[in-house]
Every structure is written in structure tokens, then in C-alpha cells.
Recover the amino acids of this structure.
């Protein structure tokens, strides 16, 4: 403990070492959090999953923190679901036919942004035996205007209604639905009207015990801490799991490379002659080889296995300029008096290299 404390005291004299240590500790903390909060199997399931895992996430969205550097906040995703208990869904039976009923689902939300969402979609989940419900959709703006969006014939237990791709609605509004439904009236340039909106969904059922739920999603322009990709996946998953892998990769490569470089340099310095010449020539050739293109070539020709790339990284990093740096230091140590004393006592070459030269360095 005294030695560790003494080492830490020495590190305080080197600000770069302190900063580097803080960065490494932060990466270790992120790695531990990732292993606990996001198991590898779950991360793989999400990353390789279907669109159902990311259906309510915007596509190619920027990180949410970009709003800190913009004059007006970019819209974030807004979701209103009749199944989460916040929507007052009402079912009114038909007085003339008890098998028929009307389901009213008001999806109300506040829109505080000046910009427009990427797109608007509605997801229906229906429960019926043979006769599917028939749905009408309307839109109420903060200005009190009611816009008839359209009619939807439900086909199946789940159905998606992409408003932004509805050609008839686009023609009626004169612009895409995610702009026209939110645009302020009488504005020269399209600007979103802030306030409370309601998407009114009315479903007509034709069987007893028929049920319908709806989820409205206004896809924002920003999402999460890292944004999303073209498949709507949250890039934070890749960054979180990239941390422990990159950290272990870097530490293993650094430890093995430093150790092997020091051993090879010690052997070359001690034996000298043709051994030293061969190692120096190999080092000089390796120093002019392009490191990154070779790694890319190995990954393309063979595979992108972590262990293969780690092995290639170590092999390409052993014979670098550090060999010559260590050699210059080993030459000074080799001439020390205690090395001559060890030789006089009959120490072998291996003992001299591994017990006297390398520990001194």
C-alpha cells in the first residue's frame, strides 16, 4: 500500500498522467455500467432485431444535446398511446344493435416546437373475430380548426397508418402531412403552430367484445445521447458496448506490445551482432508499413474476429520505434557495474536479460 501511495504521489507531478488515469477510470466505469445495465445478449437482440423493436424511434436523428447549441430546439419524438392509461377511451354501444359500438380515442398532446417532425404515423391494434372495425381519423389544431384526415379499414391484429405517405392527404393539405397538420395558418414560411393538438380516432365495431387501441408517434429530429441510424437503432447501444471491447482491446494490445518489444530489444542489445542486426532491419521495414490499411486488409480477407485483429495489432506494433528507444537505454544499463558483477558470479544470459536488464528499465 505504501508503494501504491508513493506511485500515486509521483503521478501528481505529471498532469498528463493524471488526465489519462481519469479517462481510463471513466471508461472502466462506463464498461461496468454497460455490463450490468445492458447485458450482451440484450444488446445483440436489439441491434440485430426487427423494425418492431425500433418502430417508435426516428430515423437518422441527431443527438438530443444538439439543442444546447441551436436557437430553437429541434423536435423530440412525441408518443401518445391509448394503452398507457393517459387516454380516456370511451365505448358507446349502439342502441339499435347491441353487437355494434363506437369507440372514441382522443390522442391529445402538446407541441412546443417551431420545427416539424420527420413524419407522423399511427399504429392500430385491433381485437376482433371476423368483422374488423372501421376507423375515421380527424385532427384538431390549437386554433380550433378540424381537419378530416381519412378513413382506415383495419386489416389484421396490427396495422400501421403512415400519414406522411398518404397521397390524398398531402394533396388536400398542399404539403406533406407532418408539415401541413402542424403549420401555423397564414404564415409565409412553414412554421409549426405551438399548442395542444388532438388526433380524434373514432372506430365503428360490428362484433361484441371488439376492441381497438391506437398509438400516435410524431418522429422527432433528435433522439438520445448519440442519435439513431438508418434502421432507427439507438447508436448509444453501439457506443456503450464499444467501450469495454475497445478498452480491453487497447489495454491488452498495449501490455503485450510493450512487454514483447522490451524483451526483444533486451535480447538484441545483449547478444548484439547478427541478432541485433536482424531485429533492427525488421524494425525499420515494419516502421514504413501502413498500419491501418493492413488491419483493414486482414479484416476483409480473413475475418473481423476480435482476437485476430488483436493479434495483428500486436504483431504490427512490436517492431516499432520503441525498439530503438529501448536499445539505447539497454546499452547504458549493459555497461553498469552490477551487470559485470553478475557476469562474474556466473549468471546466465537469460538471467541477465530478465532479472537485471529488463527490471532496471
Amino acid at each position: 500500500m505504501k508503494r501504491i501511495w508513493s506511485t500515486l504521489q509521483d503521478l501528481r507531478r505529471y498532469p498528463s498522467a493524471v488526465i489519462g488515469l481519469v479517462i481510463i477510470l471513466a471508461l472502466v466505469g462506463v464498461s461496468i455500467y454497460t455490463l450490468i445495465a445492458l447485458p450482451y445478449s440484450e444488446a445483440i437482440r436489439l441491434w440485430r432485431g426487427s423494425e418492431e423493436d425500433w418502430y417508435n424511434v426516428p430515423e437518422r436523428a441527431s443527438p438530443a444535446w444538439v439543442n444546447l447549441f441551436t436557437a430553437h430546439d429541434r423536435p423530440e419524438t412525441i408518443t401518445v398511446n391509448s394503452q398507457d392509461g393517459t387516454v380516456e377511451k370511451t365505448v358507446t354501444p349502439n342502441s339499435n344493435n347491441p353487437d355494434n359500438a363506437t369507440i372514441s380515442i382522443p390522442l391529445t398532446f402538446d407541441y412546443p416546437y417551431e420545427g416539424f417532425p420527420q413524419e407522423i404515423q399511427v399504429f392500430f391494434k385491433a381485437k376482433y373475430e371476423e368483422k374488423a372495425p372501421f376507423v375515421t381519423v380527424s385532427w384538431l389544431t390549437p386554433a380550433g380548426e378540424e381537419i378530416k384526415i381519412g378513413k382506415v379499414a383495419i386489416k389484421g391484429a396490427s396495422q400501421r397508418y403512415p400519414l406522411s405517405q398518404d397521397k390524398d392527404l398531402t394533396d388536400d393539405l398542399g404539403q406533406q402531412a407532418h408539415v401541413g397538420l402542424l403549420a401555423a395558418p397564414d404564415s409565409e414560411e412553414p412554421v409549426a403552430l405551438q399548442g395542444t393538438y388532438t388526433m380524434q380516432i373514432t372506430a365503428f365495431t360490428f362484433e361484441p367484445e371488439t376492441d381497438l387501441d391506437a398509438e400516435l408517434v410524431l418522429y422527432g429530429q433528435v433522439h438520445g445521447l448519440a442519435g439513431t441510424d438508418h434502421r432507427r437503432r439507438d447508436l448509444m447501444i453501439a457506443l456503450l458496448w464499444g467501450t469495454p471491447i475497445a478498452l480491453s482491446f487497447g489495454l491488452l494490445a498495449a501490455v503485450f506490445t510493450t512487454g514483447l518489444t522490451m524483451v526483444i530489444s533486451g535480447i538484441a542489445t545483449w547478444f548484439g551482432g547478427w541478432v541485433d542486426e536482424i531485429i533492427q532491419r525488421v524494425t525499420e521495414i515494419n516502421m514504413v508499413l501502413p498500419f491501418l490499411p493492413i488491419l483493414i486488409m486482414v479484416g476483409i480477407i480473413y475475418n473481423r474476429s476480435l482476437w485476430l485483429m488483436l493479434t495483428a495489432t500486436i504483431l504490427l506494433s512490436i517492431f516499432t520505434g520503441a525498439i530503438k528507444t529501448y536499445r539505447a537505454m539497454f546499452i547504458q544499463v549493459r555497461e553498469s557495474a552490477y551487470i559485470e558483477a553478475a557476469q562474474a558470479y556466473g549468471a546466465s544470459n537469460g538471467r541477465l536479460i530478465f532479472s537485471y536488464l529488463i527490471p532496471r528499465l
About this structure: The mean pLDDT is 89.
